Prior knowledge:
Elements: H1 19-32, H2 40-44, H3 50-61, H4 72-85, H5 89-93, H6 101-123, H7 141-163, H8 177-185, H9 197-212, H10 220-241, H11 249-266, H12 301-314, H13 316-320
Helix pairs in contact: 1-9, 7-12, 9-10
The structure holds a DNA duplex.
Amino acid sequence: xxRPPCCDKEGVKKGPWTPEEDIILVTYIQEHGxxxxxxxxxxxxxxxxxxxxxxxxxxxxxxxxxxxxxxxQEEKMIIHLQDLLGNRWAAIASYLPQRxxxxxxNYWNTHLKKKLKKLQAGSEGNLGEGFSxxxxxxxxxxxxxxxxxxxxxxxxxxxxxxxxxxxPSSSNNNNNPSNSSSxxxxxxxxxxxxxxxxxxxxxxxxxxxxxxxxxxxxxxxxNSVATQNSFNYNLNxxxxxxxxxxxxxGISSTSAELSETFESLFGFESLESPNSxxxxxxxxxxxxxxxVNVIGPEMPLxxxxxxxxxxxxxxxxxxxxxxxxxxxx
DNA sequence: AATTCTCACAACCGCGGGCTT
DNA sequence: TAAGCCCGCGGTTGTGAGAAT
Length: 329
């Protein structure tokens, strides 16, 4: 026998989320952590289905999300990755931790597709540097998958070494206990609520602002959009400014490391103001592990391997700690 | 000024994989 | 082992804003 049925479809509210609903959801998640979405509607009293709650959280309320204004570098990365991975938006999103798969998907559909078409039409397949769709050196998918397997194996070994008791933890910057519990070992809602503090704090702050400055004659959609943007703006800000005072501290520092890594690898700041949740498990399901080989033809594999292994020794859980199954929330 | 068209994006829907009972 | 459920993913739709006419 299975479990009791999911949300009954009657009485389930649809459409744009209101700020009030957002607050309720974030408050709940702050207390219990994300996960067990099925129980969220009943426990919060929200007339939403669990799916909707999860979507709202992962795409908009989760701290660390950057919205809009895709940089040229991000565009290139998306194009590269789309070329390699196809429409596997979640996998692509794992390389842009501040972006959600939905966001990337939308951006692709509305901007990049057209842009690429134009480029292709304009230069007959010459996509210019950074646009690899027709690159002859492109790694075939089979090759890539094999390499990925190898890398995962290597990474696992490195991880176990890094985590072995003999190994001094000096190289591991995640000495912060709260961090270690919230990134590696904690699976799911047992995670310290402090990780979400920034979210709740800033939503509260935002709500104040929203009350003061309610969107003028906004329709439900724009209302929602406006609040989302400001929510996220605040959440992002919070991710940085509260990181030093909350449980997000450790995560923040390690994210900064990864940010540097990304910068060094891609030559741009893809991870500005990283914050507590950007490496949330939603980004790090097995599928979403940073499978370094997909980055692109210009990226020498050895460098990527080195990066992977270096990262493992420095901060293994960040890359690999999500094992084969756990989606930490 | 009113209407129509196009764009952008939030949210929904359906499916598949994996987990629980 | 099988039935049923949950979760996450990708595709699609709905709707408001702004531009064009």
